[in-house]
Amino acid sequence: MSMPSSPEPVPESPVTGPRDPALEIEHGLAMRAAAERLGKEFTGIGAETIESFLETSYEHFAAGARIPTFLPLMAERFSRQRLRALARVEGARDRPTVLFLCPDNAGRSLLALGLFEELAGDGAVAWSGGADPATDVDAGVATAMGERGIDLADEFPKPWTDEIVEAADVVVTMGGVTAPELPGRQYEHWDLPDPGGQDLDTVRAIRDESEQRVRDLLARLGVGVKA
Questions:
Q1: pLDDT by residue (tens digit) across 64-75?
Q2: 137 belongs to a structural domain
Q3: Lesser CB count within 10 Å: N end or C end of the chain?
Q4: Does 142 share its domain with 214?
Q5: How far apart are CA 206 and CA 145, in angstroms?
């Protein structure tokens, strides 16, 4: 979705087909506001790059969206992650960064991400992505993580991009996915079952195994675990 200088309804989208003209105007305004916010946050990155990230992120989520209301918000959040990764590639690496990848970014990689962020606190950075992102987070995964006090309400399945892989120190793959192999990165594969569609007890067991692996990874990275 482009961000024209003045809001004009676009009767047909090349991504998802016909849309509500009023929604097009609303989304155009929201995307321009997002570009302004990101521009103030990432002053060292050009406006064209920021707008490009927003547009490509929007188009990705629009392609599979059942309810388009939150597309600008999702595009802004994913663009912010991509811009942080780009800034890290071009700047200092002050904390270890881990990227968790699985086929759909709805289960295994989100389990690992949530546990990593909870245990590492500010001591490390983590992102996640999927080779073919699902539409929604797996309900069983959200429930199992909620039992641990980890809220996945703001998470949504998303892809990974070149700048995100380049910014990672460690890339953890699950479910047979492969990632571009770059020099200086550590790669490891975690053989974890897919929690998708499993009963809650099975998801809990996968969660607990994920936690043990995350704790081991943090120890190897020299990152202290929050009490």
A1: 777 788 899 999
A2: yes
A3: C
A4: yes
A5: 11
